[in-house]
Amino acid sequence: MRSFSDPRHLSRILCVMFLYQTFYVDCGYNEFTFSEILQILEKSSSTQNISYSKKLAEKILNGLKDQNDRLDVYIDTYSSPVKSKDLDPLSLVVLRLAIYEGFDACITPPKVAVDEAIELLRDFGADIYTKKVAGILGKIYEKLQSVSKNDSNKLE
Description:
Elements: H1 7-21, H2 34-48, H3 54-64, H4 68-78, H5 89-104, H6 110-123, H7 130-146
Helix pairs in contact: 1-3, 1-5, 4-5, 5-6, 5-7, 6-7
């Protein structure tokens, strides 16, 4: 398990929490805005000596806005026979985050995105989903590796 003192990892945890809540807004729960979550985290960080990368969290969340359908196409392509709509919400959020961060926007190297996705699932107690998520991300990684060196490293 990664240390919660790693600012980039803590930023990813923040992103997963923010994205996960969107599954339950339609059920009558109040949605926190990203700025409200940042305020809560900043209050916690000042009292508990926690640091996170606000820049990374903003970059991921701003980049993921309105990208679910496009990212789900990749998930559906590489998760056969299971489709994105059949995945549990936590796995789906983590997959979207990892695909965007590591393969689409290339914020971090793809292998780091895969490792982080597995660690995030473990942090949230979802060890049972790690093999499925690793398999999907591994297939995407292999596809990128098969693309010639002259082509872009991004998903097309």
